[in-house]
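User: Please predict the structure of the protein below. I'd like the answer in structure-token form so I can feed it into my own downstream comparison script.

Assistant: Understood. Taking the following sequence of 223 residues as input:
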Amino acid sequence: MTPPSDGPQLQRRFGLLQATALNMTNMIGVGPFITIPALMSALHGPQAMLGWLVALVIALADGLIWSELGAALPGSGGTYVYLREGFGRHAGGRLMAFLFIWQFLLSGPLEIASGFIGFKQYVKYLWPSLTQGGEIAVIVGVGVLAVALLYRRINSIGLITLSLWLGTLLTVAIVIVTGVAHFQPSVAFDFPSGAFQFSAGYLVGLGAASRIGIYDYLGYYDV
């Protein structure tokens, strides 16, 4: 066993509670609140909810794989480390890890941008008289505020994460209670004719709904 270094050591400041809060807030985010219409239209009926179930199975299986990789290869880097070690750091692993970083430089900002798009929709709903320039100013301000909140010690980030998590749980609870209070079985189970007819078009629609579901579950691997 290698003896510990005498140099500075990183200290674990995120516990189970903070990590759980981080993962849950990243998973929920704004995605489910803005993609429900798109998901429902993928199969043109309530049967589109199957997309969320398919996405759940995929996310659960992938999450378990991430858990095993995290336990087997502890360290900073996540996917970068897993690709490098899985394909060999002196072989294809270096290329795969390098390509992952470059594609993440594109996909990461796009994920954040999708959240801003959702926020913009809610701002427009809550403040109908706001001009387009005002909307842009609000979104830019929110982005700058997010960076400012993240530019601090990890202990403070843990407290912020817990606060956002509690707000997320409250929002989800309100949505659930409101949905139950206004639940209409005739609408929820109004399946069109041929709703579950196995065909190429059905599989394409289910794939589209599942793709949206995966987007809604993104963040399950963050911890």
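That's the full token string. Residues 16-68+111-183+199-217 form one domain.
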